[in-house]
Amino acid sequence: MVVEKLILYDERGLPVKKSDKEETFDNLNSRIDNDKEEIIDELDYQGIVIDEKYFSKYDDGNDIVSIFGKEALEEIQNVISEVTGLAFVTVDYRGEPLTEMTHFTRFCRRVREDPSRNLKCKLSDASGAIRAAVTKKTSHYFCPCGLLEVAIPIVVNGRFLGGFIGGQVRCIDAPKNVDYITENDTSSINRKDEEWLEIKEYGYKEFEAISKLVELIVGQLTKQQIITSHYNKKNIRKIQSLKKKINTLEFENKILNDKLDEFNRNFNDSYRKSVFGLLSNLSIIEGATNTNEVLRLYYKYLENHYKFTNVNSLEFILEQTKILLDIAKYGCNNEVSYSINYGNIDIKSTDMLSGFIQTYTLAIIFFEDKIVDEPINIDIAIALNDGLVEVKIKNNGSGLPYSTLYKKYKQQEDIDKIFDNYNIINDINYLERKVKSVGNKECYIEELCEEDNYRCVTLRYLLVDRKDK
Description:
Heat Shock Protein 90, alpha+beta, 2 domains, about 50% helix
């Protein structure tokens, strides 16, 4: 639809000489877009304006239908029409209807069936909404047929989107400032016609009061829909972001599973068993009983990774720790003995516990065996009390802190070569950082050097599934 001019008319149907209003239809809406900040801030606005905090770069495409939905708009129109008795239609900024006409009179429906008069009706609707946006007030005006109407503009994020047009009532006491904003077409109307006479007649104050009520209802509904839409879009974007992360993790997991499958294919279990069997037989033939026992223990250590269904269980961790200590006996200068006490406790969250026990027991073997000349005894005790896990590893020997032992052994020749293969201090530092990262004063690692050259290292941490009282 192309409209040449917007011209205001007074109640007599004569053009109002306001050159600043004689603008092309598209240029007027363009001016509203370009000068929206000046327009919105100039006066106290009585129409529907939505706070910009509910908008972002993602919301530029908003229109009235996308805010409400066509069915919801028509339902709102129906309810308001039933309560007020006014006809309603929602139009875009060009005056094009966005919804079905609600409660329209027979007279108006017939007029709009005439293409030429329908064009004037659309222009009247658009002009009323645009004038309301420019003046920042709900606009009352006469349509080309002389019926009183109201235009409630909707301005969202500074953009004029259209408005709710209602009315189609006869009114004989309207003030003189309520004018025709499009060409007067009243001369062709038969005021004794049945369709004209069945149109309701309102006093202007009554119509104005109804208009304010409708403006309040529509304004609140619009704001509610805008805010709901805003948070829905935020949630959708968050869900999309999480889906991307999930897809990335699933892809990475697939890569790891593929690598594991490839490793399992290359690491032939039957061949591994046959090699260990061969080495064990050779050690027996050669009389190397200690070698045979170490091979047996190490084979058991590897086999446990396949044997245990849950490698994070406390049973698995302690079984592997026992094997490592039994192997260590054959590589130490001193006799090694140990005890592990944990009762009947069941701990499911064992990630921190696993690293702690194996790291510190191996640290005892590595450091103490090189500095003391006496049997080494290691006592490991695990307790669980109200969701708090406590692990104590106590041993005899030098009684020195591990940091001191590291500095002492760092001075020895070729110690760097040993630490290149297995840096115990790095593992200890990693565990301490991991515990501190929990950010809870009940979680810590404590190292105490006691009398008689005993050292006790304690780990305390909260179970993830503990329910605080």
